[in-house]
Amino acid sequence: MALWMETGSEPNTQSEIADLDAITALKESAALELKLEQTVDLEVRLEILFEEKGNQYVKLGKKHYADAIDCYTKAINQKALSDPENSVIYANRAHVNLLLGNYRRALMDAQEAIKLCPTNVKAFYRAVKASLSLDLLGEAKSYCENGLERDPNNEELKKLARQIDAQNSEREHHEAQVSKAVATAKHLVSAIENRGLKIGKAVFQELTGLRKPILDTNNILHWPVLLLYAEVMSSDFIEDFCETDIFSAHLDIVSIFPEFFYLNADVDVDFGHGM
Which spans of this chain does UniProt mark as TPR repeats (predicted)? Predict the structure, then answer.
């Protein structure tokens, strides 16, 4: 039996685990009864009971989370406990809202818990979790830093701090890539407009793929070019045709047909984007 276990030892059997759970429940029940006995005010007694009932519902699992929320709300509405005590209830309700995926409500509860008791580290932790779930990285970082100021050794907050830093780095990298892509596209459009060129609808993509014109660092355009030979129902594709090049230079290296063919064949040229 768990009653005969040595101090500091761990339960080894299901029976010992059950005994310890029962002892813990008795202690909690006794503590609650003592707290209620010492409380004269009816509203305070009700708030304590609602809070305890909410805690019990949380332990019963997901099916009872809504009941836990209801009990915590009733406890808060009694308005009979001190600010630090009410802060605990708000933080508990924030926890259940997190479990339910009600992240905005969880954040509001955590904020209220912090307002009532600025030293409630659990409230800061839950504010961070809710902020992250809402993709509010700035708020998450602020709550995390404030929480660590109050409890520098809190491992859970340290873990969240690392997560926030990683997500911030990832976001900054993504934003930099997007910014670079937008700038590149603007420069390309400007170069095309300055040359008086018009871009039409892309054609023959089954032959050229999704290749697009590019503007190099020397402000020179490079086009994907498709050569169509109607007489023999064939084609050649030049992936990088520089605007300073001439066709003969490219035709000289195309080896599909004999040289005399290029001197006599009609060649249709498509620049891939309807120039």
Answer: 87-120
Please give the mean pLDDT across all residues of the chain: 77
The residue out of 152, 171, 190 marking a domain boundary is 171
DSSP-assigned beta bridge partners for residue 268 = 228
pLDDT-based confidence at 275, cuts 50/70/90?
very low
Report in angstroms the alpha-carbon separations of 186 from 64, 145, 181, 195, 225.
Answer: 56, 40, 9, 14, 22
- pLDDT tens track for 231-260: 767 777 778 888 887 766 666 655 444 444
44: tokens are: 């305070």
pTM above 0.90, yes or no: no
Helix-helix angle 83-100:65-78, to 10 degrees: 160
Cα separation, 28 vs 14, whole angstroms: 21
Say how many CA atoms lie within 13 Å of 115 toward its Cβ: 7
The number of C-alpha atoms within 13 Å of 61 and in the hemisphere containing its C-beta is: 1
pLDDT tens digits along 16-26: 454 445 434 43
User: Two tokens at 64?
Assistant: 């009872």
Distance (Å, whole) CA 58 – CA 195: 69
Task: Check whether 1 has a pLDDT greater than 60.
Answer: no
Q: Where is the domain boundary, 151, 171, 191?
A: 171
| Burial profile 173-206: b = 16 or more Cβ within 10 angstroms, e = fewer | eeeeeeeeeeeeeeeeeebbeeeeeeeeeeeeee
Contact partners, residue 117, CB within 8 Å, separation at least 6: 83, 84, 87, 88, 123
Domain boundaries, position 159 = 2-171
* Band of residue 158 on the pLDDT scale cut at 50, 70, 90: very high
